[in-house]
Amino acid sequence: MRGFLLALGFLTRLPVPALVATDADFATAIRCYPLVGLVIGMLVAGAGWLGMQVEPWVGALAALATWVGVTGALHLDGLADLADGLGAAHGDRDRLIAVMADPHVGSFGVVALVMQLLAKLVLLHALLPLGWWPVALIPFASRIGPLLWARLLPPLKPGLGARVATAVRRRDLIGWALLLLAGAVAAPFLLAAFALIAGYLGWLRARLGGVNGDAHGAGIEIVEMGLLLAAVIVGTP
Asked: 123 lies in which domain range?
């Protein structure tokens, strides 16, 4: 429960009890990221269903607003930083990492944010006729990614990221992967999560040679959008 509350407090803006925690505590909390994703997904799906009672676009907007609000745009920030880095790097890895560390948002980041939000809005609207409950599983599936990326990629700098890498155990990955497979029995589009998470892992290894907080956040956003697209293409029960 302690790890879950720490993960919930880190990944969302939901109120949680104040806890005294060490870096090691925060590192091990990564094991609960998928469970926090399920909480986020349930809130998103619920908001979408309520909005849908008014009008489909209202439902899509309510879901998206909840998605951004509950997470505090945490992962969108990572996506913007990665986009700025890629836009300015011109193939230079060191410059890519340096630009990602800059707290300012550039034009590439702004474009990436706008495109991501528009894509999510349109895809959420497209899912309305197919049912809302599978949407609750998308944030869950996407937050399995950081466990794999943290375990298999070196951190780009020392600190909490290095501790996180050692906190992810093999049994954590196996357990969440089995739960994802179980979810795919009811929602087959979730199988795309394996390809999306593994594909992003390969890209990070080739382009960055490691992972940091921004890369984790960007990866979550990319996997979420990919799963929304897969749900629209494959359809949901």
From this structure: 2-234
